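Hi F.,

I've been meaning to write this up properly since the lab meeting, where we talked about keeping a consistent format for the predictions we share between groups. The idea is simple: the sequence comes first, exactly as it goes in, then the structure tokens exactly as they come out, then a line or two of notes. No screenshots and no reformatting. I'm using this chain as the first example so we have something concrete to point to.
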Amino acid sequence: GRYEPEKLVKMLVEHRVTVTHCVPTILHMLLNQAASTGVRFDGLKMLVGGSALSRGLCERAMERGIQVTAGYGLSETCPVLSVSRIKPALLHASQEERVGLFTTTGFPMPLVDVRILDEVGVGPESGRNNTGELVVRAPWLTSGYARNAEGSRELWQGGWLHTGDVAYRDEAGYLHITDRLKDVIKSGGEWVSSLELENLLSRHAAVSETAVVGIKDEHWGERPVAFVVLRHGANPATIRDALRAHLQGFVTRGSLQRWAIPDEFRVVAEIPKTSVGKLNKRALRAMLETSP
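Output, unedited:
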């Protein structure tokens, strides 16, 4: 059945729930409901997984008293591979820095080995500019897919399970997922991370939810298009210029390439989801094909 955020909020408050977990879509629903009623969740610890936890969503959760931690894994990994805990040396980090740490992919769980492979299968050094596919090994991973030999061969290569996620490891050892291989946008020979754009757009005060996909372009190959759901009271007539200016600010600070700014911002009432609450980017790409 459908999730009913008002009932979920009521249960969390009445039963004084201290620990729970959900996907970002459910957290988004809970926060919208809480904002309309003034409810707080002080003392609640929440593990968020299933898709990326954006900075904007994390900040909204913390403002409502929720201690958010991101977990990462796949169905094939049964499921958790890493958790975004804060290292002891970073416990005194600022609020902004803590949000940045909580929204990383975190550190591998015990008994989980990870590597990041570039296009030729070599593990690059740490750093944001050294990205590649995240591959893993652990005792409990699936050995393959039932009645799908080809898929199993693609899943396991060279003794490592290939996640299909693009990642890098920073100097502090934190993993960062930047995109799915199937969702990465290649524009003019350069990679554009849809997750990075979604993360930055989510920090704009008028944005309730966002998703970025690529659209075919004769000159550049692909260009990013951003779908946004606005918060109550936001002005659709001015939001496109406001979002371009918002992203330009990150370009000026050197944290985003100028050519990564989407050519188009589409305001929508809602963003389609899969059956498990993830952003349905396949449906968004189909929308672009039918109504360019």
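Notes:
Residues 154 and 283 are 25 Å apart (CA to CA).
The chain is about 30% helix and 30% strand.

If this format works for you, I'll send the rest the same way.

G.
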